[in-house]
Amino acid sequence: MASASPVRGMLLCHAGAHRLAFEAHEVVSITSPGGGDAASAALAFRAPPAASRVLVATSGGTVGVDALEIDSETHWLMPVPGVVAGASGGSLRGFVLARGELWPLLGLADFERFLRRLPRGAA
Predict the structure, then answer these.
(1) In the chain, which end has fewer C-beta atoms inside a 10 angstrom radius, N or C?
(2) Under DSSP, is residue 111 helix (H, G, I), strand (E, B) or coil?
(3) Full residue range of the structural domain in which residue 51 is found
(4) Using one digit for the tens of pLDDT, what is the confidence trace for 39-61?
(5) 63-92: pLDDT as tens digits
(6) Can you tell which superkingdom this protein's organism belongs to (predicted)?
(7) How many domains does the chain have?
(8) Is the residue at 122 inside a domain?
(9) Under 8 Å CB-to-CB from 27, ≥6 apart: which residues?
(10) Could you tell me if residue 27 is inside a domain?
(11) Kind of pairing between the strands at 101-106 and 92-98
(12) 53 has which bridge partners?
């Protein structure tokens, strides 16, 4: 198992009761939903989409989240256990302990592609 590495600058997001984190440098902008075709992070949890913010990736892909906070602290990235490595289509990069809770750190563009492959009736 690989050792932990430092990560600084993340967006701590919520999709319903679920937590997600993305590295800030992967986000070009944050917009409000409105007429766009953002993939809702809630689909990954089989929940109905209800995004209030849309993250735009450097790839141009978009992911909708319910809420977000910017975290500029340095946290240690814990590696992905092999048993869950494929569960998010390869977008899971590891876990960080931030604000007393464990957050899965995802690659934004990879997560967006994973969400697009989910059946629309997954919720």
Answers:
(1) N
(2) helix
(3) 5-117
(4) 999 988 888 877 899 999 999 99
(5) 999 999 999 999 999 988 887 877 788 899
(6) Bacteria
(7) 1
(8) no
(9) 11, 55, 56, 57, 58, 108
(10) yes
(11) antiparallel
(12) 65
